[in-house]
Amino acid sequence: MNEAIFGAGVASYPAGVLLRTSVYSTNLRAAFSLVCADDGMPYGALSVNVPDADLAEDEILASADWNLPAELKAALLGTGKFVQTGRSNQVGLGRGEIWRIADPELLSQVAAARVVTRRTRPVRRAEALA
Questions:
Q1: Which of 46, 84, 88, 89 is the most exposed place for a label (fewest CB within 10 A)?
Q2: Residue spans per domain, the chain
């Protein structure tokens, strides 16, 4: 599979970044991280996990602009894979926008990650006895 490179010339100059899909193990919300396209080293996190944030299953809390370059976030929005909802939530020192995942392939990857995480989660003894 030929992966899409985002932010070439903006992020991880000049190579750009690759989008990685997973879920947060604590609440199974969608999680997106970025790795450098040329060497696979971690670049940053697109999403952040704020457990109290009111999010739908197909939404993420995008990191505040102090965490990722605004140009890179704009490039990711420009792909159509994500859509701004017009809502935001406090994230660290700034406000993170709530984005809806609009790409069926990304939604499928998130669903698969949820299944894997549920299967590999250790079962607490009290839960096993219930």
A1: 84
A2: 17-124
